[in-house]
Amino acid sequence: MLVQICCSVDSHYFLRKLKEIYPSVRIIGYFYDPNIHPYSEFLLRYDDVKGSAKTLGIEVILGDYELDEWFRFVKGLEDEPEKGERCQKCFDFRMQKTALLAKKLGEKTITTTLLMSPKKSHSQLEKSLSEICAKFNLDFIAPDFRKNGGSKAQFDLAKKDNLYHQNYCGCIYAMQKQNKASLEFELMSSINHQIQPNSPEDRALFYRNLKVLEEQKSKFRLQKDSFINYRLLRALVKFDEKAIKSYFLFNSHFERNLVKFSINYECDEFVKNDIRVFSFDKFQELLGAKFKSFDEFLKKPLSVDEELNLREKICEKGSFSPIIVIEKLVPAKVEIVAFSKIYLDVREILVTF
């Protein structure tokens, strides 16, 4: 039996139930989530699924990340509500890919762990499985394990086994309907590959560390933690109307999206209200480091923790004053265009004991 898998929270319980009901049937997992964004989130969910399935002795095949193909398939249905026509098309898309793989592997039956999700329509999934399997001459099963306390048991098991519980279920269009202020930042990755707090990349590292603690049989618990998070959405510095290379330290927040001032002399540091602009040489001096060039620094920036430690030296702990690094400070009319967000976020932390 080939089982299309969407996430570990759904698959962890669903696969156990399948093994109980079909003890003599070989079960193969197929992680196929082409509608999940960004790619780092897709990989994080796959890693957790793979770890969960390993405890059951189930192989998991990683499907292709076919986001562009998925977008084309659901085009025109962006404004459909959850459990509407877009979801039906999405199920058809995934079940067809599952059926194609089943035929290739010589499997006769398919199903999906989406049947476990309380946010998905069981009847839509059953319709998709029925029509696709008729087309490919396959059998399917569509058990409803959510009934009779199944959903509660599912989430209790996921919590007990420290599975990754994602912040959103579904695609970008579903995410927009959830109206959570922080969800827009789920899609962001830093262009310089800096790992930012509570990003998919950050959560991936967190869960890798968690698995190490589990293997070491360390005692710990997961705990929710509220904190103030930050994202720089867009930033540009112009000298005499010409864009120049620049770097904005983490937590550089702007109340106004456009700031203008003049620098009248060559210097290493310039302060305008709460904004601090440093030359790269001065920045190196403050940092106590020696990058070969400004370009090298831009490609391989500091970690967020390193930037926050430096910020504390320049300002105070908890500061959100803009700190900008440019290659050289020369007399010019300066424009700073910047869009940033400060927001209350919730993350998981490890409490050891």
From TrEMBL:
Cystine residue pairs = C169-C171
Query: Which Pfam family name is an example for this entry?
Result: QueH
Q: Which pathway does it take part in?
A: tRNA modification; tRNA-queuosine biosynthesis
The alphabetical list of record keywords is:
4Fe-4S, Disulfide bond, Iron, Iron-sulfur, Metal-binding, Oxidoreductase, Queuosine biosynthesis, Redox-active center, tRNA processing
Superkingdom, taxonomy of origin: Bacteria
EC number(s) for this protein? 1.17.99.6
| Gene Ontology biological process terms, A to Z | tRNA queuosine(34) biosynthetic process
First-level EC class: oxidoreductase
Which HAMAP family did the record assign?
QueH
The entry's family comment says: Belongs to the QueH family.
Q: What is this protein called?
A: Epoxyqueuosine reductase QueH
This chain's source organism reads: Campylobacter ureolyticus
Encoding gene, per UniProt annotation: queH
